[in-house]
Amino acid sequence: MASCSRTVWKVFAGCQRQLLRAGGPAFTGISPTAPRNLPVRTFAAVKPQRKNQKEDKEKEVKKERRVIDDSDRQKPYGFTGWAPVDDVYVPRFYPRTNYGAAESVDMLKTFQRLDFTPLKQPIFIDLRLNMKLEKKKKVDAFISTVHLPHPFKTEMNKVLVFTADANQAQFALESGAVFAGGVELIQPILDDEISADFYITVPDMLQKLVPLKNKLRKKFPKSKRGAVGINILKMLAMFKTGHEYMVEDDCYVRTQIAMLDMTDEQILANLETVLLDVCSQRPAGMEPFIERAIIASQTSEAVWFRSEDLLQKPTEQQQEEEKAVLTI
After folding, report:
1. pLDDT tens column, 133-162
2. Buried/exposed 136-173: b ≥16 CB within 10 Å, e otherwise
């Protein structure tokens, strides 16, 4: 009996201490000066952030990406083998195959025959560019217009010419421009009464076209694109049949280059023209500019191809042969 009473007393004393911790001075029957067990904080205080924390992060040296040399290995790192032994395999277990430019075009035509898809369908390319420069700078996204040796469009582009000279405006209209004139064309463009695919101008009109900057945006005539000059006939010939492409998402060029029903030579000629024009935007001393190149038709799967096959520099022997021909 005594042991039971002692146990009950211990339980009652523990409950009393717990009530004193939670309620504190709310119980008037207990003296406020009596010693109480205060709760103990079991978590650490938040570390105050330093003002120069950003600067410290910038000073941290980034770890360089490890490059594994697979040249002397029996199989590439992380893959099952160098190439599958038959035509039934899981693609992710083998390294991706980069085909030659001519071979990739031939594959697109093979896909069309096997899939029974229309022969008249567009061919697109997807290029990933190396836009990085020194000191965390990047190459500015650009827009370019190139004259393809074998145009695939059935209709010519609409070109509008800005010029204050009435004779030049009449000449531009006779040469194929859809509209030609001076400042009187600004308000109709702002009101969406007239529009065109390309806008070209003479240098004297450039300052007067400032109100159209927000309206035309990327189509606003710029000297870098060849849309500002005094040779109206040359600019019209360029933009009426020219093909425009631009850099999207900071480093990608996605554009159509040909139709599948064209010959292999015509497709390769257009492809080479676009690749050369893209590489002409590369800053000096920076190569390779094209990191990855993909070609595909509208209904086929994508084919990775080697863009350097069409961008190879002429060898010394070829240069000597060219010099010999010129001397003759």
Report:
1. 877 788 888 888 898 999 998 888 899 999
2. eeebebeebbbebebebeeeebbbbbbbeeeebbebbe
